[in-house]
């Protein structure tokens, strides 16, 4: 079973600044993932030509099951509000998605605590702090009927604000207490592997730098497991012709 996580930057390429759904489809197909978590996913956004990027990816990988979960409604970086799950069909939304070639027994959405006030942050090369605010964050989990029995896979994209991402991760892991194991937690956690493992108490099974895309120096994207699941081969950070992240892929099997 190949598990993958990919922050797709709403399908945009850094090379030409364009969103090309055919390019996205080819990239997803090349990963040959059985279970795929996507972050920074558009639906009905003008900047991605009104496409449903989850549906594009699902068709490309042959996913029989998929679910998009909006984190916000409106325009990222512009005017938006936190999504509630009650958005009207056709309204512009942005969030995460989980796709599977295996049947899904049940789905679950977890809305994570939002940092409602802006805070000052220092960025490399800046002489003074920059005032930043964050977007709403969500997670989506599915109990799958996999090739070696039932398992849970959860995908998320956490805050880029240090400390707050750790709080969100603790809250997410707590919300998954009692879920079907083995459990795989995947996604862009916006923290390094050592911190992610310490906060969750889960085992990393995919080690490879994923960011920035051209010369990756940090691993922000992860596959963490609990229960009888292990990597059956080396992980790979795959350079694809879109996004500012590399996709993280790892083959897994029963422990």
Write structural notes for this entry.
With 255 residues, the protein is α+β, with helices and mostly antiparallel strands. It has helices at residues 21-31, 53-61, 164-175, 193-200; strands spanning 2-7, 35-43, 65-74, 80-82, 93-100, 104-111, 119-121, 130-132, 138-146, 149-157, 183-188, 203-204, 221-226, 229-231, 236-238, 247-254. Strands 1, 2, 3, 4, 5, 14, 15 and 16 form an eight-stranded mixed β-sheet that branches. The protein has a six-stranded mixed β-sheet with strand order 6-9-10-11-13-12, with helices on one face. Strand 1 (2-7), helix 1 and strand 2 (35-43) form a beta-alpha-beta unit. The protein is globular. The chain starts with a strand and ends with a strand.
């Amino acid at each position: 079973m190949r598990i993958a996580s990919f922050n797709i930057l709403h399908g945009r390429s850094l090379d030409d600044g364009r969103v090309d759904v055919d390019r996205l489809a080819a990239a997803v197909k090349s990963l040959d993932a059985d279970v795929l978590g996507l972050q920074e996913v558009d639906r009905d956004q003008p900047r991605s030509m009104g496409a449903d990027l989850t549906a594009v990816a699902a068709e490309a990988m042959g996913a029989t099951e998929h679910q998009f979960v909006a984190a916000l409604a409106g325009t990222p970086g512009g005017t938006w509000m936190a999504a509630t799950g009650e958005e009207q069909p056709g309204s512009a939304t942005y969030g995460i998605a989980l796709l599977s070639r295996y049947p899904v027994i049940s789905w679950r959405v977890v809305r994570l605590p939002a940092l409602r006030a802006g805070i000052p942050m220092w960025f490399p090369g800046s002489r003074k702090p920059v005032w930043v605010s964050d977007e709403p964050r969500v997670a989506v989990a599915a109990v799958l009927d996999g090739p070696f029995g039932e398992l849970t896979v959860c995908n998320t994209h956490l805050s880029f604000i240090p400390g707050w991402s750790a709080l969100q991760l603790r809250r997410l892991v707590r919300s998954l207490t009692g879920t079907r194991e083995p459990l795989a937690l995947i996604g862009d956690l916006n923290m390094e592997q050592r911190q992610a493992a310490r906060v969750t108490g889960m085992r990393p099974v995919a080690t490879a730098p994923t960011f920035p895309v051209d010369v990756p120096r940090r691993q922000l994207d992860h596959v963490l497991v609990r229960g009888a699941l292990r990597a059956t081969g080396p992980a790979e950070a795959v350079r694809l012709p879109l996004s500012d992240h590399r996709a993280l892929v790892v083959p897994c099997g029963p422990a």
